[in-house]
Design brief:
Chain lengths: ~190, ~210
């Protein structure tokens, strides 16, 4: 049976038809792999930057405080003055060829200050830094699980002993880690 | 002037703060003292671990127990390590041979404020004595609580060059003392507090190695 044909006027609306796009978007797998590689490389670069570039950058932006001989570090309730540097005879427990050095520091803590064997380090002319091997003091400091707790508001003389494995190396500076400071050392006194 | 009875030696030389008291009572009759010992020898055959300190600290000698100084984390970390089944204190030292197979001794016997107050002949004699004790009792693992202690023991008892010992990593060492494996962990002194996290990790590795 023949379909009756329409012979009337055609409206504009009937001419513009909606187009249904049935084609699916196909992702390029190569592009996804490239994104992952970029992300991983970015993370690696960030970690390398944080580990290797940030410390010198921060040290350049915020250099440790420099304390000359006889001067006192006074930083937020923590005070320290280097009084003496002295070479000592090596002890029975020291490695062969090592040299003991003693640094006497006058300290005063007006807020909590707990020292461990890496709070003060001796920087040598070789560039190495050695941790404190032993503490003596003339006050009421107490050794706790966290280290040597200084008495509050009371100046004490702290005697730091360092064992320098290479006996030829000479002390250059006393380094304090918190607050960050570098103390010039006086000429060594006689043993 | 030194500060009373406090152990002021930092961990780099490995002081222990441990101590023995001559004639101190021993639990179960297993601990025994001998002339010249400040603390009883807590060793016997078949132990899993023997902890070795430098020498008794004065506070520990006074109290008659190993690692008794309050600023020492030895017992706290031992309790957290998995090597023992309950929290322990210095007063449990004599019980641990039975409970956990753990014994105690020191490189040197004389109590001092600091390890550097020991003389070289004392250290040489102590290394030989400790070597003989380990060979006699053959614990599974000898734990040197402080790198400096093994450096001196290795040099004077095992004849290892000091330069070689200085660069050794922590943990198990390549030497054997009979069947005993030496392990080195950081000191438990409060002055070595930055190394205490690593120390606890090594103790947990020890516990895992036994349970494996």
């Amino acid at each position: 049976m023949p379909v009756p044909r329409y012979h009337g006027p055609v409206s504009q609306q009937q001419v513009v038809r909606r187009r249904v796009d049935t084609e699916q978007k196909v992702e390029d797998p190569g592009r996804r792999g490239c994104l992952w590689l970029g992300a991983i490389l970015g993370i690696i670069a960030g970690v390398l930057f944080a580990f290797f570039a940030m410390p010198p950058l921060l040290a350049w932006l915020f250099p440790p405080e420099h304390i000359a001989v006889g001067e006192t570090l006074d930083h937020e309730g923590r005070m320290a003055t280097v009084r003496e540097l002295r070479p000592l005879a090596s002890a029975s427990v020291d490695p062969e060829g090592s040299q003991r050095w003693r640094v006497i520091v006058e300290v005063r803590a007006d807020r909590t200050w707990v020292l461990d064997n890496e709070t003060f380090q001796l920087r040598l002319d070789s560039g190495d830094e050695v941790p404190t091997a032993a503490f003596d003091h003339d006050g009421k400091a107490q050794t706790t699980e966290k280290g040597l707790r200084l008495p509050l508001g009371e100046p004490i003389l702290l005697t730091l002993t360092f064992v320098v494995p290479d006996g030829q190396a000479q002390p250059e500076k006393l380094i304090l880690d918190d607050p960050q400071a570098e103390f010039d050392l006086p000429p060594p006194s006689q043993p | 002037m030194l500060a009373g009875d406090e152990p002021l030696e930092a961990g780099v030389t490995g002081t222990t703060g441990s101590a023995h008291t001559a004639g101190a009572p021993s639990a179960g009759g297993l601990a025994h003292s001998s002339p010249g010992r400040a603390l009883p020898l807590l060793l016997r055959p078949g132990l899993r671990f023997v902890f070795i300190g430098f020498n008794p600290g004065l506070e520990s000698a006074r109290r008659g127990h190993y690692y008794a100084y309050r600023g020492n984390v030895f017992w706290k970390q031992l309790s957290e390590s998995g090597l023992v089944s309950r929290p322990v204190t210095c007063e449990d030292d004599r019980l641990l041979m039975d409970e956990a197979g753990i014994g105690f001794t020191d490189l040197c016997l004389r109590p001092t404020l600091r390890a550097d107050q020991l003389t070289r002949p004392e250290i040489i004699e102590g290394a030989a004595r400790l070597h003989a004790e380990l060979l006699e009792y053959q614990p599974r693992i000898a734990v040197f609580s402080g790198k400096g202690i093994y450096q001196l023991f290795g040099r004077y008892a095992l004849g290892i060059a000091p330069g070689e010992l200085a660069n050794r990593p922590l943990g198990p060492q390549p030497e054997r003392i009979g069947v005993t494996i030496p392990w080195v962990i950081p000191s438990s002194s409060g002055l070595a507090s930055r190394h205490h996290r690593r120390r606890l990790e090594l103790l947990r590795e020890l516990a895992a190695s036994v349970h494996a």
